[in-house]
Design goal:
mainly alpha; two-stranded antiparallel ribbon; 2 strands; 1% strand; globular; binds zinc ion; Acyl-CoA_DS; iron; membrane; FA_desaturase_dom; oxidoreductase
């Protein structure tokens, strides 16, 4: 084991998972993690089964784009988009914010709904998803992170699915407390029977419904609501691991790789505010702002709370956020200022270069930045 690997295996992590992990008043670690974020040279073991399956699904999905626009029936197009939203909602509000981060609690009807919707995504069981995601946060951007973005764009986007997990990922995964996940009987049922259930929900039903309900052709059904949907879903999710760990603003903590990304928030129903999310992962909103067009998952959780299906929603106080922004932010927070906002405000800064330049140039000067706050 190299000295850096040794340091990593002895470290308690580069990120926080729950509020209790934080060891500073504004919710972060006090340790310097910069040395752990480099990568060790390692020989990758390719997983050929995954390479073949993913290559084939991507080829069929590309043909699916053509069929979606020029041959598929209108009900097939709507069906594909609705299925995409269902799966994305189960990943964001369910596997991610409920199970991986415990950012709120859910009664059994909501958990059952998430499990059924999640089965349509073909992204392994909710348990598997939540466990890998906890390792990602706790050892973010190190060799113990399953999709370590320090290893480059392709590895964090798709490469990690095509290679065997590093031994450090496996070891660190075992060091985490997953007792709450093991205690959820519904979750464990899905995990145990995953490979019997997933063909039905991810492939058979999405293929049968268009063929029997509105007479869609077999090839359109296979390539559009099945392959195209699954590939877009996988790539949208993967962009959070690659794009949102490389490009964009680090408004809350400039020392970590994750960034703020408005476009991904639309595509992933509110998961693009990734710098905030890694700074405060226990917030059910996964963003400073609540339910809006840029945070559909938060709006859905708030709706479920009104219906009594979700409760104990955790969030972060404005004072705590402000403290963190002033201590570790890159200065870009000043673009939208303080208070709960809809996406419009955030979008102004990102889409109008003049507004962006005026503000970023302004906040770039440290003297003026102090004046702003
Ligand atoms: Zn991340
Ligand atoms: Zn997360």
């Amino acid at each position: 084991m190299s000295p850096r690997e040794n340091a990593l295996s002895n470290s308690s992590g580069t990120g926080v998972l729950f509020e209790s992990d934080a060891d500073t008043v504004d919710g972060t670690l006090s340790a310097d993690i910069s040395q752990l974020k480099k990568v060790e040279e390692r020989k990758f073991k390719l997983v050929w089964r995954n390479i073949i399956v993913l290559s084939l699904t991507h080829v069929l999905a590309v043909y699916g784009v053509y069929l979606f626009f020029f041959h598929a029936k209108w009900p097939t197009r709507f069906f594909t988009i609705i299925l995409y939203w269902m799966a994305m909602l189960a990943i964001t509000a369910g596997a991610h914010r409920l199970w991986a981060h415990r950012s709120y609690k859910a009664k059994w009807p909501l958990r059952a709904l998430f499990i059924i919707f999640h089965l349509t995504s073909f992204q392994l069981s909710c348990f598997h998803w939540a466990r890998d995601h906890r390792v990602h946060h706790k050892f973010s951007d190190t060799d113990a992170d399953p999709h370590n973005s320090s290893r480059g764009f392709f590895f964090s986007h798709m490469g990690w699915l095509l290679t065997e997990k590093s031994p450090l990922v496996v070891a660190k995964g075992k060091s985490l407390d997953l007792s709450d996940l093991y205690a959820d009987r519904m979750l464990m049922f899905e995990h145990k029977h995953y490979f019997k259930l997933v063909p039905i929900f991810a492939f058979v039903l999405p293929a049968i419904i268009p063929m029997y309900m509105w007479n869609e052709s077999f090839i359109n059904t296979v390539c559009v609501p099945v392959m195209l949907r699954l590939v877009v879903l996988l790539n949208a999710q993967s962009c959070i691991n690659s794009v949102a760990h490389m490009f964009g603003w680090r408004s809350y903590d400039k020392n970590i790789n994750p960034t703020q990304n408005f476009g991904l928030s639309i595509l992933c129903l509110g998961e693009g505010w990734h710098n905030y999310h890694h700074a405060f992962p226990w917030d059910y909103k996964a963003a400073e702002w609540g339910g809006s067009s840029s945070n559909v998952a938060a709006a859905f959780i708030e709706l479920c709370a009104k219906m009594g299906w979700a409760y104990d929603l955790k969030t972060v106080s404005a004072e705590m956020i402000e403290k963190r922004v002033k201590r570790t932010g890159d200065g870009t927070h000043a673009i939208w200022g303080w208070g709960d906002k809809d996406l419009t405000y955030a979008a102004i800064g990102m889409f109008f270069p003049k507004y962006y330049l005026q503000n970023v140039v302004y906040v770039a000067s440290e003297k003026q930045q102090t004046a702003l706050y």
